[in-house]
Each structure stands twice: as C-alpha cells, then as structure tokens.
Amino acid sequence: xxxxxxxxxxxxxxxxxxxxxxxxxxxxxxxxxxxxxxxxxxxxxxxxxxxxxxxxxxxxxxxxxxxxxxxxxxxxxxxxxxxxxxxxxxxxxxxxxxxxxxxxxxxxxxxxxxxxxxxxxxxxxxxxxxxxxxxxxxxxxxxxxxxxxxxxxxxxxxxxxxxxxxxxxxxxxxxxxxxxxxxxxxxxxxxxxxxxxxxxxxxxxxxxxxxxxxxxxxxxxxxxxxxxxxxxxxxxxxxxxxxxxxxxxxxxxxxxxxxxxxxxxxxxxxxxxxxxxxxxxxxxxxxxxxxxxxxxxxxxxxxxxxxxxxxxxxxxxxxxxxxxxxxxxxxxxxxxxxxxx
Amino acid sequence: xxxxxxxxxxxxxxxxxxxxxxxxxxxxxxxxxxxxxxxxxxxxxxxxxxxxxxxxxxxxxxxxxxxxxxxxxxxxxxxxxxxxxxxxxxxxxxxxxxxxxxxxxxxxxxxxxxxxxxxxxxxxxxxxxxxxxxxxxxxxxxxxxxxxxxxxxxxxxxxxxxxxxxxxxxxxxxxxxxxxxxxxxxxxxxxxxxxxxxxxxxxxxxxxxxxxxxxxxxxxxxxxxxxxxxxxxxxxxxxxxxxxxxxxxxxxxxxxxxxxxxxxxxxxxxxxxxxxxxxxxxxxxxxxxxxxxxxxxxxxxxxxxxxxxxxxxxxxxxxxxxxxxxxxxxxxxxxxxxxxxxxxxxxxxxxxxxxxxxxxxxxxxxxxxxxxxxxxxxxxxxxxxxxxxxxxxxxxxxxxxxxxxxxxxxxxxxxxxxxxxxxxxxxxxxxxxxxxxxxxxxxxxxxxxxxxxxxxxxxxxxxxxxxxxxxxxxxxxxxxxxxxxxxxxxxxxxxxxxxxxxxxxxxxxxxxxxxxxxxxxxxxxxxxxxxxxxxxxxxxxxxxxxxxxxxxxxxxxxxxxxxxxxxxxxxxxxxxxxxxxxxxxxxxxxxxxxxxxx
Lengths: 341, 598
Description:
The structure holds 2 protein chains of 2 kinds. By secondary structure, chain A is mainly beta.
C-alpha cells in the first residue's frame, strides 16, 4: 500500500546513492564489496496467525547480488514501512510497525521503540532531512510529530477532517512542507505539520502519494478505484492518468532521474509513464500476482526493477520489466523496498 | 536450592491450594473449592504444550519432568511470541519460579529480551500484552534498555503498560468493552486480569484488577443461563454460536457459577474440540474469589427480568464518524431461555452475533437465530489498516468463513432489531450489491417440535421453551448436519419472533393458540420497511428499518439506555460507578475512587 513512505528523502537518497554507484562503477550486477543492501518491509505473511508462531514478517535485508532475504530484527513484527536518515557517519534506520516506531542507531543490531501506547500501528514514517530530531508518523489516528527524536509526540491534525492517515512525505525542496494521505483527501502542510489544507484531488480513497524527485510541483496519487491522479501545479488541479485500469493503485515510484514513473496496484500489473504521469502503458501483468504493494527502481540502472507483492513476495527484472523472476519472501506482503547503506 | 527455599516453595504451593479454604465462602459457592481442585487435577493431566498446563502440573505435583520439557520448549522456540505468550509466560514464572531450575527462569527472562512480544491490533491483544509487560517490568526492575526486546528500560516499559491498563480500565468502566460479551474472547480478558490481580504489587493496580474481574464476571452473570453466555455478542466463532456450551466461557461458568453441572471437557456433544490453552487454571489457582452477589446474580433465575446495557464499537479507524460508537444491548432472561439482541448494523467486524434465543437443554445446539451473511473489504477496512480490496481474502485465510454464504456469524449493515421483553422484530434491507443476498436462520435438528402453521407462524419447542417465528417473506428449508437452515432470498425482509415457556404459557398448544391470535402487520413493507406487531402480552411494537422503534405508541430511544440497567446491575454511562444488587445485598464498584462498597 505504501510504496514510498519517506518519499522525498528516500528518493533524494536513492538518487545520491545512484550517482555514487554510477561514479564508483558499481551497478546492480556487480557482486561483493562494500555495497548497500535491499531492505524490505513485510507486514504480513500468508499463514500468519496473531500470537502464533512467526511466519516471516518484519524487516528483511538482502545484499545486492545475493539471493537470500534475512530477517534482521525480531520476526513476528508487523512492518508497514521503513526509513533511513544519514549525515556523515551518523545514521538512523526506522521501522514503522505494529508495535510502534522503531529506531536503530547501530545499523540494525539493536532497536528501540520510540512510541508508546497512544500511537497504535505506525503506518508510515517521514524523517526531516536536515534535523534528525524531527520525525513524523502517520497512524490510523492521525499524524504525530516529534521534535526530539521520539522522546515525546504531539498530534498534528489541525485542518484535517478525518483521523486516518496512511502516509506522510516531506517535500523535496522544502522540508517544512509535508503531504499526508488521509482518508478523505491528500493534505498539505506548509508549516511542518501545524496546519493542514486539503488539496481536493476530487476522488475518494487516496492511497499513496509520490512527489517528482526533480520537479516538486508534480504530484501523483494512487486511488482506491480511480487509477492515479496527477497534478503538475503543486496540487491546484488534478487530472486522471490515462490508460490505467480503474482499480486500486498502492505503489508509485519514480526512476531516480524522474524520467519514468511506475505504478502498481490491485490486479493491475505494473505500469509506467514517460510523461510525468499523464499517460501510462502496461509493463507486466502476471496472473499469479494479485497486487503490487511496492516498487523499487535501482539507482544507476533503471532496467533493474523490483516489486513487492501481497503474498507472492518479491519479483525482480533486470531488463526493464520484460522478464521477471521471483526472488524470495514467498508468501510475504511486501509494503516497501529500499536500498540503504 | 536449600531447605529454606524448599520450605518457601512448599508454602507457596500450599497457600495456592488451601488459601481459599481459610476464607468463609457462601453456601452457594461452597463447591467452588472442589471444582477448582478438580480442574487443576484435570489440567495437570493434559499433554497440550502451554504455560497453563505446565502450571497445573507443578501445582498438582504431576508429570513435573514432562512439564519442565514443555517449558523448555516454550522458552526455546523463538518463533513463538506475542501477546498470548507475554502474559502467560510471566504468570507461569511468577507462580513457579521458586520451583524452576535457574536455567529455565533465565530463559523466561530472556524471552522478554530476545523475541518480539507483538502487541497485536485489538483490545484483547492489548490487555494480554500490557499485562505481561507490566508484570515483567515489575519483576525485573532497574534493567536498562538493552535487556528488553523493545529497547525500553524496565521503568519505561512499566510506565507504558501501566498507562495503557489504566486507560483501558477507565474506558471499560465508563463506556464498556469494545470486544464485549464474547463467549470465546472472554478468556482473553479474564485470564490476564486475574493474573494482574494475583501479582501486581501496586495495591491500587491490584484493586483495579479485582474490580475489573468483578465487572467482567458481573457482566457475564446478568446474561448467563446454565453455562450459556446468552444474547448478542461482539465476537464469537460459528461453532460456538450454534452450540453455546462449546464456548470457552462455559468452562469459566462451570468453575465460578457451578453451571452447567457437566464437566464440559468430557462432553463431546458440547465440546467437540478443545480450544485454548486451559486458561481456566488461572481461575483455579487465583486468590481472587467471586463475590457471592455475582454468584447469586448468575444463578438465580426465579424471576424473569429485562437487562439492558451499552458497550462500544471497537476502534473505528476510517469510514466512520465516531471512534467508538455506542452499542445498545437488550436481554430478556427467564429460567428456561434468554432472548437477547444488539441493535444491528456493523458493531464488530467478522464475528458479530446480533441476536438469538438460547434455551436450557441437555442437548447441544440449543439456540435459534437469524443473520445476513455480510462481508466486504470496506467493513474490514473500518477496523484494520490493510488494503480493502483483498482484506476479505486475507481474513478468510485465518477465519476461514468470512466470505462464506453459509456462515453463522456476521455483522451486517442491512440488519436491525427491535426487542421488547420476549418478542423481537428483526428487519433486513439488503443492498442490491450485497455479496450474499439472502438471510439465514439456524434451527437445531434436535428440537422436540418444529411446526409450520397455516397462519404463517413456525412454532418450535425445545423442552419447556417455545419459540414462534414469523417470516415476512417466502423461505426454504435446507437440511444440514445438526440443523435446518431456514433461508429467505428476498432483499426486503424480516422476521418476528416471540418466545415463551411452560411457566409463561402453560402447554405448547396454549402458547400456539395465544400466538396465532395475532400476526405481524406489514402491508407495503417493501416501500415503508415497517412492521407492526402486538405481542401476546398486548404490547404494540412498531419498527421501521432505519427509522423509529415505537412501543405502545411511545418512541424507544436507544440513546436513553444506561450503562447497565436491570434488577441486578445498574450504572450510568461515564459515571465510573457500577452497582450490583441482589435482594438486600449491594456491591458497588467505584472506579473513580478505586473502591468497593458493600
């Protein structure tokens, strides 16, 4: 459902990583070395029963070039989203999950829950790219903000009509501008969450939002029944993405250079657009994949695509989507895939 | 372990076994001691791997080596974890740690460091999880963040768990449980609450746990009839809905209320399979004693009574206007049967049971009810954050029957009820796009009589209980294993039901004669969705789907319902005070002052 929870930061990061990979000569086919790894957020696995024996849910890591996903934190942890923040030698990994917002400051060796009982499931996390102490989380009961790296949380819902918030992202150019996917609309805050304004997408059931990595005035949203909607004026006007089926679209992703956009959803297959989301063409449709929940485009090699599904794990293509291979996490519902150091 | 340790250990066991005998118990409850010892004995002979069977084996001094093996396995298998594990593990530890080898005690401690204690996503999960965390943090204080699975220190864990438990106690004592009156999930509330009562060191929390146990049992008692948890339920499994004594709550009724008299675990007709982990052992070893007044409330059925109460819908996360809309519940109780209902609509996802008549019988399947088998992703998405397009399929993977057209549990936005004493009108206005456009009724095959009268009434007799059932629209009968499935495929639909008994009506023939003097008036129903009916007692009921409930010309406002209202249990919403009354006895739970007044 949430393909990119900390979209702007992560895209920026992915772009930088991609640049770094290109400059350093590393690409997705290279093996070994000090490479970043893929991280996958798995929130459910078919066969799982609450309280029963674990069936491989949680945060998984796979080294680039490797074929095995490894659970790097406790199994049995519903993981809706992940996030990463780095400046210099300081890094933070985040898990948005059923038990709360988890943070690791030692590369995933140990984790600490930063939230308490007041904030039920954490569906998405957004990290201020400048100030590591500022965190935002989306929850079924609203947006919460911390200005001290999770020691205290404040509910930030002024201007919002409904309390269910599925995703929150930070504008790529202005870290005080936020976008929140709420039950009734896409909302924007220009003051770091103090006040929210509905953008009036015009269709019910907004599921996810993507901001263009280069041009922040381009916003794309996935909806429950109406494909995707696109705005090229910062949310003032919206139009339907042409060519898409009228179904739910849970996953949106840009190539790091912003030239290509991908979308996937419920019985939709994978689609791409080369014109900022205006028109879309089908890349791949496989009957065994009921829903695409997440998409990842490898930095430095836009032919390398990875998708996370509901119950079929991860699929991967090295030829821009012409052929695909299931590359693990069978049975998993994969909400988000990222490449982190 | 030295002599002192061994003596201390023996004293603990002796106290657990004999402690209640030191207290005077009422005549009505005198056999409780025998039942609890019997239960410990039975459970100690079980082979099911679980903390409760381990506890029973140790307390009974039976199969200790095997119990140790089970405990070792439970604490070694790191794939097990979560809310069920959390409170059961610490409860077992606190009961037995003096008797366990240090290695096992360390393993239990390590479980709270090394494995995910997933807290879950619903009320019963959180009660179990936070009870476990509260007691674990209390047991191992002053330990730093590295010693806990969630990276929080002992103090942080304790503070969080205490905070959650306090707010749960507050909301439950002022607006009700979300997962209320569940014959199955009853165990997931009462067991952690008794564990908390047993081991909380803070006297205020201990007193709150005692009061919550009182409240949970009193809430059960007013709707209890010979082991059956009667009326509407927030959640229940279909096999328990059609066979009420199969529900886990019945075993707690046996232990605390002494009813039914049967040892249910030996009765395959009522308990075709064992579910759960013998949580009842926690009741058997607890020092909590059921107040005599609750026992009397649960068992005295000498006079029929009406009991109403309000609960709350579980947390609505989207597609709603309120986080916890109210639930209105009505129960009419007699010595032979109970007729009970919720107002209808979506009050709980998946497992709601909106109304039934449950009667006393020595046969299984002692209930009659109807439902619309509704399902939708949107219903589920009201309560769960996952994707609504495939949520129903996901739920089907776990609950197996969610999308099944023949299921016996369901909420439905197309079903509403209006009950007055022993009569109820159930109306259906099924949307054209509903996945299963029919309503079903459960009629056990073992009824003594089931007669379709030319008047349009269907009459049933089960022992001394009589049921009159009037379908508004055509229907068919489908024979199944233990029941006849009554099915009607009209979208605008309804049934009127009156229940009677030997005490109220004399013979079955007399009951039928009284009933056939009248019948529901529903002319133009498909347009107006209105039914009028005069009960055999002369009460006039008028009910319109999505409209008014009118009794004897006066509108019945569900919003006027008190928190609890009946001869045995009273209280106002948000007052925090719940009063039990029985004859000249009174017991008031005052959650504002955390005090009990008698």
